[in-house]
Design brief:
Elements lengths: L2 E8 L2 E8 L4 E5 L10 H7 L4 E5 L19 H12 L5 E6 L1 H12 L4 E7 L5 H5 L3 H10 L14 H12 L3 H4 L2 H9 L1 H13 L4 H4 L6 E6 L4 H13 L4 E5 L6 H4 L1 H12 L1
Parallel strand pairs: 3-4, 3-5, 5-6, 6-7, 7-8
Antiparallel strand pairs: 1-2, 2-4
Amino acid sequence: MTNRAYTLERGGVSIGLRERGEGEPVLFVHGTGLSSRYWGPLASQVATRRKAVTVDLLGYGESDPWSGGDAFHFHRDRDVVIAALEAQGMPAHVVGHSYGGLLALQAALARPELVRSLALYEPVAFGVLHSAEHGAGLADMARVNQDGAVLDVEGGGSEAWLRGFVEYWNGAGAFDAMTAVARAALVRTGRKAFLEVRSTLLDRTSHAEYARIARPFLLMNGAESPLAARATVTVLARAIPGARRLEVPGAGHLGPFTHGDVVGPAILAFLD
């Protein structure tokens, strides 16, 4: 089985990728604070029947760090995804988690000819909550940011900010429960994580815009995930014609990794 790591150069930036297997490409896009290695187990399964491609976003894994200061928009990472898609030479299936799911949606809007299908677990496309006027989802987001800390430029990306970020998604005590190695890695990319979150929360791409993506969709969420994340998947699933929806019992936002025995087979079945 083919297994190779390589880099792409785009606009003076080095982008890290890894390919496993051969055939029709499936691109995996990771979320905030993670890296492509988290997709390893599922990518290895996919590689038995297709070419599984994992990409590192700016600041993570084998890709260059973000060097543009605070002038960041998630379109910079969207363009990393587009570059990875262009390198495949044919349309690819795209699997995305969280921030990676948002980037997959945005790449499909910008370059639909590069995308064959999308399998997304809790894409943070929170703009759809505004366009759909989803009161409960918006209230959940407002509750988290009631003191303005989430968008605070001065403290954004600090250890205190990261603690709040991790515990919003994974519950009280989740930050302290991380291994020392994982926590240190998260702290190293903290400022970039803040810039991703700020850009994401300010986005207003509507559910009607995403509904124009005429591709097969699988939309997934954990039954125990934050209300805003579940609401976003609900809005997208209702808006996108023919979209399949899967809610994973007992899972939270890290469902692709904590409940891979459910999420993995669902993605494999969707791709088939």
